[in-house]
Design goal:
The chain has about 325 residues and is an alpha/beta fold. Helix content is about 45%, strand content about 20%.
Length: about 325
Amino acid sequence: MFRFNLLGRIMGIIIIASFFGGCSLTYTIKEPVVSSIDYGKKDIMPITLNIIDMRTGDDSTFLVARLGPSGDISKFPINLKNMENPIGYFTQSLEKELASRKIPVKCVVGKTAADELTLEIFRYQIINRRATGFSPWEAMHIFSGNIVKEGKKTPIKTFFYGGKTPVWSMDELEEPCFNIPISIIIKDVASKINRVVFNYAAPDEKIDRLNIEISSEIGKTVEGPFWQVLELGYTNNPKAIEPLKRYSQQGEEFFRSCALSSIGTVGGEDQLEFLKQRYYGSMGSFNDRYMAVKAIGDIGNNEALEFLREIRKDSAYIKESGLKSCVDLYAP
């Protein structure tokens, strides 16, 4: 055990030495696998979604690195292959995700609002944070925009937190800190566009099938069947709420946090007290607390926003980048 711990510390020193020594990190971003959600609608008239990049100032930087104990913005280079154009990647992936749900939306990048439907993007960003070579690499994925339909603007926001302490190589960050959260953000935005514009819901039978899949897979891997839990949130069916509450209190941390996130995605407006309890009852779990806050932000009513503003008075708001990023997104 002593040899293993010593070896781990040596590897950590090597990693941080290269990390702060001017090297860059390069990760390959995959094309997101579309969800299995099908709202069962037919004969839907095709529509065009005009996507306008309205990011300005600091929010226009897609990849932000806050490295070292101070958390100041660093010029440390992080390269994402296949995502050199983040808005283009987002646009193509969003269209494929909506099409997989049988919603025929043509997504195009434009400069002015369209008559049919417009998505204004104010922030699409990954904030990377690491204090030391022995602390986790944290990736805060943030999206903020407006969906504009017939002149009415509705905010679309979402957040996801991924973190990992690399042991052998910085390559270990590729999936938990980049590929998985990038895919989740796109699916969550698609779900919220559906709620605002179409309000289609998957049938109860889909909820039942997902629950069977989750029950058969839970416990087989560390992360658990988190994709299926997230899909419960994409159904836009209130029948998903009760199983999601159950899953948010069992299994490993990442699995639970995905269930909490999904409560917000599916529209659990009457679950505010439950989510507050999960926030206070998960003080040892960053993922659980942050995604409970995300779900509260998704609810977005006056009581929910007041709760988020109260979190600003907590010392954890200052100390924890993930908590601060989520609170600031939903309750600026």
